[in-house]
Structure formats: structure tokens, C-alpha cells
Amino acid sequence: MSNTIKHPYHLVEISPWPLFASISAIGLTTGIVIWFHSKSMMLFSVSTFMMLLVIYQWWRDISREGSFQGLHTNIVEIGLRWGIILFITSEVIFFISFFWAFFHRSLSPNVELGCLWPPIGVDSFDPFKVPLINTIILLSSGVRVTWAHHALMEGDFTRAQEALLVTIFLGVYFTAIQLLEYVESSFSISDSSYGRTFFVATGFHGLHVLIGTLFLIFTLLRIMIGKIRALHHFGFEASAWYWHFVDVVWLFLFVTIYWWGGKL
């Protein structure tokens, strides 16, 4: 019998990475809890390294499927696009829960909080200082990644690499300023429901910025080694969509938590 593929679909082969990703994920979350309670970072560090290793090898296999095996046909690419759209939709719902918790507490603060929001004793951030700077940085990075996309469609790979490199730098710069803001904060995650909603919402956004930055770094490396073409670059589009999602979530965080919620 002939082994010629007679359909445009990609039947995924058996892969160990979903299993190892699940193991490293549960190790990562458990390691964070152990780190908080017993100050031991061993499990957290090992699980983080394992997760990064799985991400690299999983993305490597997907890149090989599209670049060398030719399995990412037009129909398969449509499926990949819908997969990213549904993934980002799930992330939107994930952040909606944080905004829901914030509005639930801020619109009707209870007696224990002094019927005030922010609660008595909590000195919130001035939204027009560091948060505004971070907003400008992240929006500028979104402009840069769009510039890189247009350069890539025109076949100007040098300009695409330069724009993408600037985007990555701005993402790292944003993360550094966010960490500095946390260090200089006058309140902590244990300071009432305000501290918990603030740090959980902004902290998870910061985690998404780190993931998006890694996504862009891998995309830049693929452009540099010639694995992304002008007419076939869904990997870049996926990273750009994710980065724009991060931008939009930050705008909501800035307007609601920093500006509106911090000055009620």
C-alpha cells in the first residue's frame, strides 16, 4: 500500500511533552507554595528549569513540523489560528475573574476595610508616575511588534529583526520597572483584599509579559536562522497576537486598578 498522504490535515504523532509539561506545571505550583512557607526554592527551581526545557523542545518539534515536514498546510494553519484565538479567549476570561473580584470589593467595601477603598492605611500608587511610564513602554512595544509584522510581510527581515529586538527590550524593561514598583510598594499582598487583588492581577499580568517576551525571543531566533518566511509566518503572528493581548489587559489594569480603583 502507498504511504502517500491523501488529505491536508495533520495527524499529530505521540509526543511526551504534554505529560512532562503537566508534571513540571504541578511541580511549579507546589514549589511556589513550599517556597512561601518553608523558604526552600529547590522544587520551584527544578520545575522551572524543566518547564523551560519542555517549552523549548515542544516549540522545536512544532517548528520542524512546519519548516521541514511541510505538515502545516493552509487548512492546518486555520486550525492553529483558531487554537490561538480560543487560547487568548480563555486568558481573557482568566483576567475577567480578577477584575470581577476587584470591582466586587471596591464598589462595596465592608466595615473591616473602613468602608473605604483603598482601605485605611493603604497608600496606593500614583497612576501618573511609574504606572503611566509602564503604559507608554508597553504600548510602544505593541507599535514595534506591528512594525516588525509589516516588515516581515514585505520581506525585509533585517528591519523585522530590529523592530522585534526593540520590542523584546521594552518587554524586559517593563518587567524590571514592575519589579522595582513591587519592591518600593508601601503595602503587600497580605494587606487586606486591596493588596491581594492588586498583586494577583498585576502579578499574573507580569507573568504573561515574561511568557510573551520568551515567545518573541524564540520568534526572533527563528527569523535569524531563516525558518520564518514572508508568506508563511504564523508563528510570528501568534506571538504578536499574544503581545497585543498583554497590551490590552494592561490598559484595563491601568485604568481600573491604578487610576480608578486607587483614587476612589
Question: What report would you give on this structure?
Answer:
The protein folds into two domains: 1-72, Orthogonal Bundle (Helix Hairpins), CATH 1.10.287; 80-260, Cytochrome c oxidase, subunit III, four-helix bundle (Four Helix Bundle (Hemerythrin (Met), subunit A), Up-down Bundle). Helix 3 runs parallel beside helix 7 (234-260) and helix 5 packs antiparallel against helix 6. The protein is an all-alpha fold and 264 residues long. The model has no long low-confidence stretch (mean pLDDT 86). The protein is globular and about 70 Å long. It is built from seven helices and no strands. It is 73% helix and 0% strand. The N and C termini lie far apart (73 Å).
How many domain regions?
Answer: 2
The largest sheet, given as strand count, sense and whether it forms a barrel, is:
none
Predict the CATH topology of the largest domain: Four Helix Bundle (Hemerythrin (Met), subunit A)
Structural class: mainly alpha
How many runs of DSSP E, i.e. beta strands? 0
Question: First CA to last CA: what distance?
Answer: 73 Å
Could you report the average pLDDT, rounded to the nearest whole number? Answer: 86
CATH superfamily grouping of the largest domain = Cytochrome c oxidase, subunit III, four-helix bundle
pLDDT < 50 stretches: none
Radius of gyration: 21 Å
CATH architect. name of the largest domain: Up-down Bundle
Query: Helix amount, in percent?
Result: over 70%
Relative strand content: under 5%
So what's the CATH class of the largest domain? Mainly Alpha
How are helices and strands ordered from N to C? Answer: HHHHHHH
Shape: globular
Tally of individual helices: 7
